[in-house]
């Protein structure tokens, strides 16, 4: 008898702007230095898309197209597109609509999902439910953020942290045991002010004053967020492991949101995980918000095998946090362009 269908990740893709912003360059822009940034965050460089005429959808279309072509799936076969982002091209239409047009996904509907650095985790869970419900067969989840568009490059407390990127996963049904097994998701809005962008919405519509007061940039009380981020991510990862009777030995990789290497190290210690089983690429890309987790999956794809147990964990503005336990669905780098495999 077939097991019930689970949503499994069947392809991954990414887009990174070419331009690098190094710690040395930032040291010329604000009062900071390479040593502080490396030791306090783990970041060495990040990518930035300075072009004014290119926005989040530009990156999202390319990441989505990469995932689809690796699977050998024409875009018109997609059912749903979910774009997790806090830097949509505009308030409306949804970035997902621009991505639908950009990909030529003529049969898909879609929407944006806003949950800051937990955006990808929330979107993955949402997409998985659409597949498990049986109504949809192919859902594209894209985490994409042009963080440089809301970063104040005169504020050393935030400008060293963020980068631009997009990454995507394709979800399809798997009836043979692989896919998303369990999730634990949370939000708590009581302390929203410690990580937010105050201007531009219906509370503070754009005016000369909101611009003058720098309300269109990320505001973060770093130390306060750090404490709750460590606790939130570690607790939720422990919760999902306990619930599924997993030990550190069982987990092939932790896939953590990349906000700070010190947060990731603390979560891995709590999970009793060897550092070589923690995906970490913050040194190259910084915090790309909704893109960090699929970017890791893309970069570690060659090491993954069917049945590998992964724990994804995130913490972000809101606050929002969560963890997903999944079993990987395929071996090594999926690339229909070179191995001729079609969907
Ligand atoms: N270069 C040099 N000095 C700096 C810099 C910098 N770039 N930034 C801050 N400092 C200084 C501060 O001014 C402060 O100096 P003071 O003691 O004289 O006042 C000192 O360094 C320590 O500042 P803290 O803010 O306490 O530094 P901390 O060690 O906490 O590191 C950081 C700051 C990296 C932001 C950290 O707190 C952090 O990672 N927080 C959590 C981030 C996170 O997880 N966010 C959630 C996801 S993001 C999202 O959802 C969009």
> What class do helices, strands and sheet pairing give?
alpha/beta
The 3D shape can be described as globular
Could you tell me the number of beta strands?
Answer: 13
Heterogens: acetyl coenzyme *A
- Helical proportion, percent range: 25-40%
Which characteristics define this entry?
343 residues; alpha/beta; five-stranded mixed sheet; 12 helices; 23% strand; binds acetyl coenzyme *A
Please sum up the structure shown.
This protein has 343 residues and is an alpha/beta fold. 33% of the residues lie in helices and 23% in strands.
Task: Describe the 3D structure.
With 343 residues, this protein is of the alpha/beta class. Helices cover 33% and strands 23% of the residues. It contains twelve helices and 13 strands. It has helices spanning 23-29, 34-41, 56-71, 95-103, 119-132, 156-159, 208-212, 222-243, 261-270, 282-285, 292-300, 336-339; strands at 6-15, 20-22, 45-47, 80-84, 109-113, 138-146, 164-174, 179-187, 195-196, 219-220, 253-256, 309-316, 320-327. It has a five-stranded mixed beta sheet with strand order 1-7-6-4-5, sandwiched between helices. Strand 12 (309-316) and strand 13 form a beta hairpin. Helix 3 packs across helix 4 (95-103) and helix 8 packs parallel to helix 9 (261-270). The longest helix has 22 residues, at 222-243. The protein starts with 5 loop residues before the first strand and ends with a helix. The model has no long low-confidence stretch (mean pLDDT 96). The structure holds acetyl coenzyme *A. Acetyl coenzyme *A (ACO) binds at residues 32, 36-37, 40-41, 116-117, 156-157, 160, 195, 222-223, 225-226, 229, 259-260, 263, 287, 289, 315-317.
